[in-house]
Batch of 2 targets.
Target 1
Amino acid sequence: MRKYLWQKSMIMGSQINEFNEYRSKMNEVILSKDNLVIKRLWNLDANTYAEGALSTQTKEMLGLVASMVLRCDDCIKYHLGKCHEQGVTTEQVYEIFAVANIVGGTIVIPHTRRAAEYWEAILAAGQS
Amino acid sequence: MRKYLWQKSMIMGSQINEFNEYRSKMNEVILSKDNLVIKRLWNLDANTYAEGALSTQTKEMLGLVASMVLRCDDCIKYHLGKCHEQGVTTEQVYEIFAVANIVGGTIVIPHTRRAAEYWEAILAAGQS
Amino acid sequence: MRKYLWQKSMIMGSQINEFNEYRSKMNEVILSKDNLVIKRLWNLDANTYAEGALSTQTKEMLGLVASMVLRCDDCIKYHLGKCHEQGVTTEQVYEIFAVANIVGGTIVIPHTRRAAEYWEAILAAGQS
Amino acid sequence: MRKYLWQKSMIMGSQINEFNEYRSKMNEVILSKDNLVIKRLWNLDANTYAEGALSTQTKEMLGLVASMVLRCDDCIKYHLGKCHEQGVTTEQVYEIFAVANIVGGTIVIPHTRRAAEYWEAILAAGQS
Amino acid sequence: MRKYLWQKSMIMGSQINEFNEYRSKMNEVILSKDNLVIKRLWNLDANTYAEGALSTQTKEMLGLVASMVLRCDDCIKYHLGKCHEQGVTTEQVYEIFAVANIVGGTIVIPHTRRAAEYWEAILAAGQS
Amino acid sequence: MRKYLWQKSMIMGSQINEFNEYRSKMNEVILSKDNLVIKRLWNLDANTYAEGALSTQTKEMLGLVASMVLRCDDCIKYHLGKCHEQGVTTEQVYEIFAVANIVGGTIVIPHTRRAAEYWEAILAAGQS
């Protein structure tokens, strides 16, 4: 059983690694082209989620729900990772999923499935 | 000056009243047709924002940012009203606007203008 | 009472007339510019809803639900008019609204309100 | 030749199986979290397509066209399966594709390709 | 006739003025709140259309077509104004409309009507 | 080193080939069904990008930015290929990416990553 869980977390961890590696690799390619507008937008993106009148935790939850209703799987994965870092619980994540499904409709369900899978991967990686 | 502010708050209050009245009137028409799916979806919508693992305040902020990136002016107005009821401050509202503008792009700006106008109307009505 | 109903149907009829007149006027402006791609697309649009393996009635219902989930009020009005011509009943229209609200989420509700208002206008005009 | 067709239907059948298995597995994960809003929305989703003033067949066609213009591949696959169960013919399916392409534009074409592939898989699985 | 044209250009000019005035007024309200992310995004927005490897003219055409397929009437008006300043001709504007209608589908038509009306207003204002 | 570059261009070339082959194969399936509306729309699509008041190069750039803000990866790949054929440079492509990211928001970033990867593949294939 223990071995099985370890293997499962390896596979799930690989989903996270794959996502992060592709992201880093392509960010490097894009930034190497020195387009100022893109560079500044990306800096600004980082600032958006800084502590302010709202906490980073709240802002990451806002980023997650926005990504879900706009149905962007990679954006969802990114904000799920950040939400986990900010201590958002599974029950809270599912309440965010619920808001996204109600506001955005059943069209959001397939993205919720992939989000749920990635959240399990994050939890498994955190436990390993 | 005093009179001017009072008139301004009357006009702004009328924007809120107009929105609420049209909403109520048409909800009545729709519900009178007894479509069960619509009725249940609307009940469910109310439940979605109830206190839970996340507070109603946080959920209304999630509803607001989702409405903004999906660019639905009426949904934005509705959640701005609810956010105000939940004690969300102007500074916090603008941080939600910022997340929506970064995630959803400059295409969200015209909706941010109308949101800002409605928020001023809510504040003015609250002070009157 | 009779007079009231007549007046109501006049006002509602005017919503329909206004929509149709603006539509005709601007179509004329656009077509006067002789852009071939736009002209052909518009011809093709008319063909799309012709009787075929599916009836025009079914296709107009498809056009309506597509317009609703894409949240285009003018497209919704157009297809509501066509659905009425094709004998679609109020109960059926509301089942289409239900599918659109479930698939597209609560973000579709404000458009459903305006759709419901326009449908009442069509019914009132039909009775006058 | 016969063997080839059998193999082809095996491969295509596997696309259907893969889709259904992932769907079931993740639905189980999601429902295990006991989020009431999500559970009720999913129940409601099932009710939406029940026989009523419109037949289940018509409603599944509505669900298909809505999924296509919203460009959700998994939703398209789901409704293609349901349309097949309801006896919708290939010619009818392509008229739904046509409405979706006209209303939603050429941006729908890549989704139409994947839809066409999945429809062939359904037909092949039905013949095996 | 002369008087009629003059009046027409007055009315059309007023559509342009109304748009610009509301825009300025609300921009002022928003910027007065000192949200740094929004301020920087707006600065960045201005930089995006500066001369570079592509001319400002080309970039404004890109901004116009993007606004059309995303169906944002105010964004369309803004970029139509900029395109006019950059010397884009009516024939060219309609070729941009054509690309937007083909890529985005007939759902773009109602926005094309409003765009065509605003373009006439710009032309009329330019001639007055 | 030389061998490595050759292998890299083989792999990248295969991404292009895979895309084109799937596209051709499924277009064949779709066109074999003889749906007139789809056939005519596809013909019209080809006409849209023909030389006119705007050059084919400019129109392909319009098609690219429209595909990016609508977040359709396959459409992006198609127009990247066409832009390369029309002599659009890397610097120009990144200015189109910048417009798309500003107008459409950070939700466009994951699509920009895949677009950047495909553009590298096109460049590598062109050099081999």
Target 2
Amino acid sequence: MKLATYKDGSRDGQLIVVSRDLSQAHYANGIATRMQQVLDDWGFVSPQLDELYTLLNHGKLRHAFNFEPKQCIAPLPRAYQWANGSAFINHVELALQARGAEVPESFYVDPLMYQGGSDDFLGPCEPARFVSEAMGIDFEAEVAVITGDVAMGASPEQALEGVRLLVLANDWSLRNLIPAELAKGFGFFQSNPATAFSPVAVTPDELGEAWAKGRVDLSLQSMWNGRKVGQCEAGPEMTFHFGRLIAHIAKTRQVRAGSIVGSGPVSNKDWKNGYSCITEKRAIETIQDGAPKTEFMKFGDSIRIEMKGRDGLSVFGAIDQDVVSLHEEQ
Amino acid sequence: MKLATYKDGSRDGQLIVVSRDLSQAHYANGIATRMQQVLDDWGFVSPQLDELYTLLNHGKLRHAFNFEPKQCIAPLPRAYQWANGSAFINHVELALQARGAEVPESFYVDPLMYQGGSDDFLGPCEPARFVSEAMGIDFEAEVAVITGDVAMGASPEQALEGVRLLVLANDWSLRNLIPAELAKGFGFFQSNPATAFSPVAVTPDELGEAWAKGRVDLSLQSMWNGRKVGQCEAGPEMTFHFGRLIAHIAKTRQVRAGSIVGSGPVSNKDWKNGYSCITEKRAIETIQDGAPKTEFMKFGDSIRIEMKGRDGLSVFGAIDQDVVSLHEEQ
């Protein structure tokens, strides 16, 4: 099943069901109006949406309309939790290696994770607004899951059962704010502005065999200003699967329905696959040549993030954003 | 105006209006059913609630009932943001001094703040459940505000205009998990389990002249196992006022309605005022005697946090929680 949220002027938007090929859509009213409602009462609501989805795919709905990703806000336009892991340890290895630091042993058994802001997400085609280019504007292409309720103390296997939906995320980062912020010891804050999400959220069964062992075994493409800079495999090198990441949250608290849990930037050992964030390219340049060469993003730049299924079709639709000055007219 | 949320079996509970003296209450249906609705549309909804509040205070509502704090869940049982500052720099000074470290100059001009989990808050009288006493269970008594929308780039003065409601918070912390977690560099995560809030949220005008310069000029009492351990002044020594804290969030992103922003533990230079978290008492013991003596909380312990107005009446009602093993029958 594929779900999305259309703009309607309200804070939570309007829930729609989207056809498998992303061509058609249908309002879900009569069943649920907002995405969070579905997650709050998944067992009751999702089978009804699934029926609508089947009819839509068979072209049997009179009031279906053409699906326009530009009319989407984030599937969950605001959420009660956005916890982002750094589950591709290769990304961490590169970052530390570029600084001449060792990767602590514990990083291979205990996931890195931070709590992100979740009150104001960006839609897939909304401009990303920043105060200044000097902050070091970087994209981060990743995969994320949206959960149901998961009890405190859940095992990774139990936690994995809590996965309800998958999305792509662009976790915008302000790299030049990070060193001072981390030095304060309280983690990322101002360096993590609003995150953007793919137009469509999909149930795991939509991935078929590509959803395996808590990972998405497909490649994630990043196009920066129209040039392909990354085609990274999101499956085999994900050190900690999504069940591990959710269980990390659940170690000391309940995880409640509608929590979004991210993989961190998808990253591969083979540099030929490119990168899912500029900071990784800069780490590679530093390791190779002693200094980074690629600059961070400028106002006017664009970034497009997309994942295709084994049938060659876009699974989630594309995140396709422009970088814009906060002071430019809206 | 005083508002609270009653248990009704749903995730968001039922909005009620509570009388100034906390003796009576009335359902707000017909106006709004959930606290977040009020914050989403403050300008339209709050005047209607205020009328109801006036009638309630004058004993003019036929369907008023006795207010029972034990029937409350958190005013916002789940929120889109919980950003917690450490605005009382004395707390930071003590913590660092006990470790033999200096306070960086920047800490006096740039607030410390972390993003907390906000998907699962505790009600004022709900037991706080933990996996193990060995995690170093500590309370943190603080003041927090709930905001409306605040634009990216807002000044501290503009941000202060975004304060809609005030609450007390008990930001539970697992002290023995903190060193390893901070060493990872991503900030607090498992060391910050679910936070509890006071029964009642109040508009700033309820504080009269005690709401001044973005601070609450009243004292916050902490009773641990029935013994008063803290009576700390929440006003004059708050280094960064709430407008400063909100503006810190707004530096690189929009702050959206229903964001909760905390002061961090209320802390005074005069040690006779006691403490608002055990870790501060242990820091003082370390500075005085070279080692901490007071142990963290045990299963069966209780903590009561309350603030009285200049009229001697409880402003927010009390947070009154027992510490319970996760494995004890619910």
